[in-house]
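Researcher: Good morning. I'm working through a list of sequences from a screen, and I'd like to move beyond sequence-only analysis. For each chain I'm collecting a predicted structure so we can compare shapes side by side. This is the next one on the list. No need for commentary yet; just the structure.
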Amino acid sequence: MDTLFLSVCRLLIDPNGKWAHAFKQSVTWRQVFRRHVLPLLVLYAICAVAGGLLFSSRLSSSTGLILMRTIVQMAALAGSLFLSSYILNETAPNFGLPYNFDRVFMMTAYCWTPIYIVAAFIGLFPFLEAFKILYLYAVYVVWAAMPHVPGLPADKRISYAATVVCVSWIIYIMIQTIGLRIGHSIL
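Model: Good morning. Structure tokens for this chain:
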């Protein structure tokens, strides 16, 4: 089993090779969450709080606001991962795939890896918001997964990739927007 660092590097540098190996593994969603997602969320939280405290002026951001934004972002990332995985699992038969939440969760979590890494980087250096454009690398990671998804017919790869990207992003934006509104009303 790869360390988290090696797994992330392989996924970012050689997604095709990582996907060929990933779909041969038998892992549960709990294992993927504990070994892959949770450490990346913690990395994001540490970077976001540190960046917020180091680079915010006293007038523009309070510690409470920094913590609220960090918690909302973590909830949006984790919540969208679970909800996207559930929806993608439920729509799997439309693409000729069997129901398999563990596999769908693994695929979705790995596809979100570039987003976790970029979010941590931007959290640490909040003045580099322009680097959010690197979120689009996740689309390439999704596309690289399609030939390796067991049982996915070749003629459904484009529509499945589009579904994975659209479902994930729409849910992420909705959860983040709702969370920020709730957070601002509390503070």
